[in-house]
Design brief:
The protein is α/β, with parallel strands linked by helices. It contains five helices and twelve strands. Helix 1 (39-50) crosses helix 5. The structure holds cytidine-5'-triphosphate (CTP) and calcium ion (CA). The site of cytidine-5'-triphosphate has 15 residues, from helix 3 and strand 9.
Length: 224
């Protein structure tokens, strides 16, 4: 696991990666989102290109340039990201869900800007978004799937539960309770689980981690 992605370990394979946050519109000028920077997903895209893969990066709004050599599809809402993924999924050998997808969206997007009223309270009703990774895992002939799990407690249990519930081949768990690591940070540490094993990738910069993770994926993909 110490080596960078080996050139050629994913030659001839198509890798799709979701990255960044989603934006869920409330009205024409407002949205719900999160602090995802997209750095981990973009680092994975770069590492996959280095490993020789054809890479489709499905990205929410981020302040990053697409790594040279990958195709970027830009999306805003979870529904748009879901549609972009499903439109191209038949081309994909390996799917990596790295985006911080909003679990819920406003039930309605108002046509006009919501006006402030005399009431001290405003209630927004939210409805569930589609689970992009879950829907990929549930396909009749799914690609090799790697998910991420952002957890603040019981990391291993919750991650393994997601591995099974979403029918994934692998899951990389992130402890987001730690300051300066993970979400919106340059560094990260990951615990990776699959059905018959696990690996710890200790704190490192995201590109270094991405290269190790892509190597692990390439290895498990070939075993499958
Ligand atoms: N994910 C997704 N679509 C969603 C929600 C999550 O594709 N609507 C993906 C994420 O990209 C990540 C994985 O599912 O790879 C796990 O996301 P996470 O937020 O940790 O888990 P959830 O299943 O949403 O459960 P919870 O937020 O309650 O922990
Ligand atoms: Ca979630």
């Amino acid at each position: 696991l110490e080596q960078p992605a080996r050139p050629g370990s994913l030659t001839g394979r198509c890798v799709m990666i979701t990255a960044g946050p989603t934006r869920e519109a409330i009205d024409p000028v407002r949205y719900l989102s999160n602090h995802s920077s997209g750095k981990m997903g973009y680092a994975l895209a770069q590492a996959a290109v280095e490993a020789g893969a054809r890479v489709i990066l499905v990205s929410g709004p981020v302040a990053l340039n697409a790594p040279p050599g990958c195709e970027r599809l830009s999306t805003q809402s979870a529904q748009q990201m879901h549609d972009a993924v499903m439109q191209r999924i038949s081309e994909v050998d390996i799917f990596i869900g790295c985006a911080a997808v909003s679990d819920y969206r406003p039930a309605v997007c108002e046509d006009q800007k919501i006006k402030k009223t005399d009431s001290d309270k405003l209630t927004l009703t939210l409805i569930k978004n589609p689970d992009i990774l879950g829907d990929v895992g549930a396909l009749a002939d799914p690609p090799f799937t790697l998910g991420f799990a952002a957890e603040t407690q019981q990391i291993k249990q919750y991650a393994q539960r997601k591995l099974a519930a979403k029918k994934l081949d692998m899951i990389a768990a992130n402890d987001v309770s730690k300051q300066n690591v993970g979400f919106n940070s340059d560094i990260n540490a990951l615990s990776v689980y699959w059905e018959t094993g696990e690996a710890v990738l200790p704190v490192a910069d995201k590109l270094h981690l991405a290269r190790q993770l892509i190597e692990l994926v390439a290895e498990k993909y070939k075993e499958k």
